[in-house]
Amino acid sequence: MAAGRHVTIIGAGAVGVISAIEALREGHRVTLIDPGEPGGEQAASYGNAGWLSSHSVIPPAEPGIWRKVPGYLMDPLGPLAIRWSYLPKALPWLVKYLLSGWTAARVETTAFALRDLLKDAPLLHRKLAEEAGVPELIERNGVMHVFPSRGNFDNDLGWRLRKKVGVEWLELNADEMRQREPDLHPRYTFGVVVEEAGRCRDPGAYVAALANHAIASGAKHVRAKATGLRLNGDRLVAVVTETGEIACDAVVIAAGARSKQLTASVGDPLPLETERGYHVMIENPESGPRSSMMASDAKMVVNWTNRGLRAAGTVEIAGLEAAPNWKRAEILRDHLLGMFPKLPRDISASRIKTWFGHRPSMPDGRPCIGYARASRDIVYAFGHGHVGLVGSARTGRLVAQLLSGRQPEIPLLPFAPERFL
């Protein structure tokens, strides 16, 4: 595969725009296709919690989670909810999801794979932000996890596996936590700080800046929806859009939760699902954490952004088309108020912003990164689930390496699309 190919990238989210930057660096000509504005409110990248958590190596499904499925079906407002009306469509994905976390050994395999993908991510993002002229949007100052008790931490398989894959952290008792986070509710008595991690001060603005950097470096941005691919044998001829065809030599499918139809059109029916996520944000809050934080009991990340104090989390399985359930955002707001008692209970509605979007998720918590079976001119880069922003920096590098036929910098077998085909 020679350099200088015309590469079309479908999707201008974090993975797509970084893939564009890295492909340009390899000497390719790049066209970005996306019907929306890069970093706009319609994009999953916009509503991201903003964590650059290089230690987020544990997939959502862990041993014994099958016991909780009846509760997920009965509670539409729980941390993981499944809408009854969507259950028949979601069932094949859910079975694979449960099996992927059936044993600790399976979870460990994913943890090692994700560690390769995420390690050094804050540093990689910092370099990209500097190139794009927005270094202030990426901070490498660690993140904190807080627990009601030491036992909640000790009994967590995830932290044992993090240690096994090389993640290090600083442990804090109740007094040490109060010194660092005086506004945090006293029910939290134990914490850990992962100092290697970082945060993004404005995910939407960051993705927009990266897209502008790609365009300034020579990429072309086409506002259109890709509907399919045209091949001649095993060679890509063009990307088909609603407004016509774009002739090209290679394509990257990085369309997030909407990648499924495109892969199926070339013979790869991959089990991609949307984990619908919400966030709530308080503008100009009176209180909050000094550092980025995750509460173990609420399954929620709290992060300062340039737009306000953002709380994000929970999962809803209901497909791409169902209307949002804004009560889920209200629960995030209530958890946020409970974590920080100094926040006023009567915050004006005009200061509270809510958002809803789609995480593209594979059942085993690992993205698809690799070639299509139909042609090595087609590269897949989607399905990052909860690690889309943090994982996008290295994914973009891997995409460029695949486009040029070079040896990928990490083993890609754990991310191979064929694992589900």
Automatic annotation (TrEMBL):
InterPro entries attached to this UniProt entry: FAD-dep_OxRdtase, FAD/NAD-bd_sf
Domain named FAD dependent oxidoreductase: residues: 7-402
GO molecular function, one term: oxidoreductase activity
SUPFAM superfamilies hit by this protein: FAD-linked reductases, C-terminal domain (SSF54373), FAD/NAD(P)-binding domain (SSF51905)
Record's keyword terms, sorted: Oxidoreductase
Cellular component terms per the entry's GO annotation: cytoplasm
Superkingdom per UniProt: Bacteria
PANTHER family associated with the record: GLYCINE OXIDASE, SARCOSINE DEHYDROGENASE-RELATED
Entry protein name: FAD-dependent oxidoreductase
Upper classification of the organism: Bacteria, Pseudomonadati, Pseudomonadota, Alphaproteobacteria, Hyphomicrobiales
